[in-house]
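User: Here's a chain of 154 residues. Predict its fold as C-alpha coordinates.
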Amino acid sequence: MTYNEKKNITNILSGILIAVVYGIIIYQKYLNGVLDDSNIFRFWAIIILIFIPISIGARIIIMIIFHIFEAVVQASKGNDIEDEMDIVDERDKLIQVKASVISMYIFAFGFVLALITQLFNVSNHVFFIVLVITGLLTDIVSESLMIRYYRRGF
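Assistant: Prediction complete.
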Protein backbone atom coordinates (compact mmCIF):
# COMPACT_ATOMS: atom_id res chain seq x y z
CA MET A 1 0.00 0.00 0.00
CA THR A 2 1.39 3.38 -0.96
CA TYR A 3 1.86 6.37 1.29
CA ASN A 4 -1.05 8.27 -0.33
CA GLU A 5 -3.43 5.34 0.16
CA LYS A 6 -2.47 5.09 3.83
CA LYS A 7 -2.95 8.84 4.24
CA ASN A 8 -6.41 8.66 2.66
CA ILE A 9 -7.45 5.75 4.88
CA THR A 10 -6.24 7.71 7.90
CA ASN A 11 -8.32 10.70 6.76
CA ILE A 12 -11.44 8.53 6.38
CA LEU A 13 -11.07 6.94 9.80
CA SER A 14 -10.23 10.21 11.53
CA GLY A 15 -13.18 11.99 9.89
CA ILE A 16 -15.60 9.30 11.04
CA LEU A 17 -14.08 9.14 14.52
CA ILE A 18 -14.12 12.90 15.06
CA ALA A 19 -17.72 13.24 13.84
CA VAL A 20 -18.99 10.32 15.92
CA VAL A 21 -17.24 11.42 19.13
CA TYR A 22 -18.39 15.04 18.68
CA GLY A 23 -21.93 13.87 17.88
CA ILE A 24 -22.08 11.72 21.01
CA ILE A 25 -20.79 14.57 23.19
CA ILE A 26 -23.30 17.06 21.75
CA TYR A 27 -26.16 14.56 22.02
CA GLN A 28 -25.34 13.91 25.69
CA LYS A 29 -25.24 17.65 26.37
CA TYR A 30 -28.57 18.03 24.58
CA LEU A 31 -30.17 15.26 26.65
CA ASN A 32 -28.83 16.79 29.87
CA GLY A 33 -30.35 20.16 28.98
CA VAL A 34 -27.02 21.97 28.68
CA LEU A 35 -27.84 23.14 25.15
CA ASP A 36 -30.86 25.36 24.59
CA ASP A 37 -32.70 24.53 21.37
CA SER A 38 -35.43 27.16 21.63
CA ASN A 39 -33.83 28.91 18.64
CA ILE A 40 -32.98 26.03 16.28
CA PHE A 41 -30.83 28.06 13.91
CA ARG A 42 -28.71 29.48 16.74
CA PHE A 43 -28.46 25.99 18.25
CA TRP A 44 -27.11 24.48 15.03
CA ALA A 45 -24.88 27.47 14.29
CA ILE A 46 -23.16 26.97 17.63
CA ILE A 47 -22.79 23.22 17.08
CA ILE A 48 -21.32 23.58 13.59
CA LEU A 49 -19.10 26.57 14.38
CA ILE A 50 -17.59 24.71 17.33
CA PHE A 51 -17.19 21.52 15.28
CA ILE A 52 -15.15 23.17 12.52
CA PRO A 53 -12.10 24.22 14.61
CA ILE A 54 -12.26 21.02 16.68
CA SER A 55 -12.26 18.94 13.50
CA ILE A 56 -9.41 20.92 11.93
CA GLY A 57 -7.29 20.73 15.08
CA ALA A 58 -7.93 17.03 15.58
CA ARG A 59 -7.11 16.25 11.94
CA ILE A 60 -3.86 18.22 12.15
CA ILE A 61 -2.84 16.30 15.25
CA ILE A 62 -3.82 12.96 13.67
CA MET A 63 -1.88 13.76 10.47
CA ILE A 64 1.22 14.75 12.48
CA ILE A 65 1.03 11.47 14.39
CA PHE A 66 0.48 9.59 11.10
CA HIS A 67 3.53 11.21 9.47
CA ILE A 68 5.73 10.47 12.48
CA PHE A 69 4.50 6.89 12.71
CA GLU A 70 4.92 6.31 8.96
CA ALA A 71 8.42 7.80 8.97
CA VAL A 72 9.45 5.55 11.87
CA VAL A 73 8.01 2.44 10.21
CA GLN A 74 9.68 3.21 6.88
CA ALA A 75 12.99 4.07 8.55
CA SER A 76 12.93 0.74 10.40
CA LYS A 77 12.46 -0.98 7.03
CA GLY A 78 15.33 1.01 5.57
CA ASN A 79 13.14 2.91 3.10
CA ASP A 80 13.35 6.65 2.49
CA ILE A 81 9.76 7.87 2.71
CA GLU A 82 10.71 11.55 2.55
CA ASP A 83 10.93 11.37 -1.24
CA GLU A 84 7.44 9.89 -1.54
CA MET A 85 5.90 12.37 0.94
CA ASP A 86 7.24 15.49 -0.75
CA ILE A 87 6.48 14.69 -4.37
CA VAL A 88 3.16 15.96 -5.72
CA ASP A 89 3.00 15.54 -9.47
CA GLU A 90 0.32 16.17 -12.09
CA ARG A 91 -1.20 12.75 -11.50
CA ASP A 92 -1.74 13.57 -7.82
CA LYS A 93 -3.33 16.89 -8.71
CA LEU A 94 -5.64 15.27 -11.28
CA ILE A 95 -6.70 12.63 -8.79
CA GLN A 96 -7.52 15.30 -6.19
CA VAL A 97 -9.47 17.39 -8.70
CA LYS A 98 -11.47 14.45 -10.02
CA ALA A 99 -12.33 13.23 -6.51
CA SER A 100 -13.26 16.78 -5.44
CA VAL A 101 -15.60 17.29 -8.38
CA ILE A 102 -17.48 14.06 -7.71
CA SER A 103 -17.69 14.75 -3.98
CA MET A 104 -19.04 18.26 -4.60
CA TYR A 105 -21.81 16.75 -6.71
CA ILE A 106 -22.66 14.54 -3.74
CA PHE A 107 -22.70 17.53 -1.39
CA ALA A 108 -24.90 19.49 -3.81
CA PHE A 109 -27.31 16.55 -3.94
CA GLY A 110 -27.32 16.41 -0.13
CA PHE A 111 -27.99 20.12 0.10
CA VAL A 112 -30.96 19.80 -2.26
CA LEU A 113 -32.16 16.80 -0.25
CA ALA A 114 -31.94 18.89 2.93
CA LEU A 115 -33.99 21.62 1.25
CA ILE A 116 -36.56 19.04 0.17
CA THR A 117 -37.03 18.03 3.81
CA GLN A 118 -38.28 21.56 4.42
CA LEU A 119 -40.94 21.20 1.74
CA PHE A 120 -42.61 18.48 3.78
CA ASN A 121 -42.62 20.43 7.07
CA VAL A 122 -40.08 18.14 8.65
CA SER A 123 -38.26 19.49 11.70
CA ASN A 124 -35.49 21.99 11.08
CA HIS A 125 -33.22 19.62 13.00
CA VAL A 126 -33.54 17.14 10.12
CA PHE A 127 -32.36 19.81 7.68
CA PHE A 128 -29.13 20.32 9.61
CA ILE A 129 -28.64 16.62 10.32
CA VAL A 130 -28.88 15.89 6.58
CA LEU A 131 -26.33 18.64 5.89
CA VAL A 132 -23.88 17.29 8.47
CA ILE A 133 -24.25 13.69 7.30
CA THR A 134 -23.83 14.78 3.69
CA GLY A 135 -20.66 16.67 4.62
CA LEU A 136 -19.23 13.57 6.30
CA LEU A 137 -20.29 11.39 3.37
CA THR A 138 -18.66 13.83 0.96
CA ASP A 139 -15.37 13.55 2.84
CA ILE A 140 -15.52 9.75 2.91
CA VAL A 141 -16.37 9.49 -0.80
CA SER A 142 -13.62 11.94 -1.77
CA GLU A 143 -10.94 10.02 0.14
CA SER A 144 -12.27 6.66 -1.11
CA LEU A 145 -12.18 7.86 -4.69
CA MET A 146 -8.60 9.00 -4.28
CA ILE A 147 -7.66 5.54 -2.98
CA ARG A 148 -9.42 3.97 -5.95
CA TYR A 149 -7.71 6.27 -8.43
CA TYR A 150 -4.28 5.67 -6.90
CA ARG A 151 -4.78 1.90 -7.10
CA ARG A 152 -6.21 2.02 -10.60
CA GLY A 153 -3.43 4.25 -11.83
CA PHE A 154 -5.85 7.00 -12.84
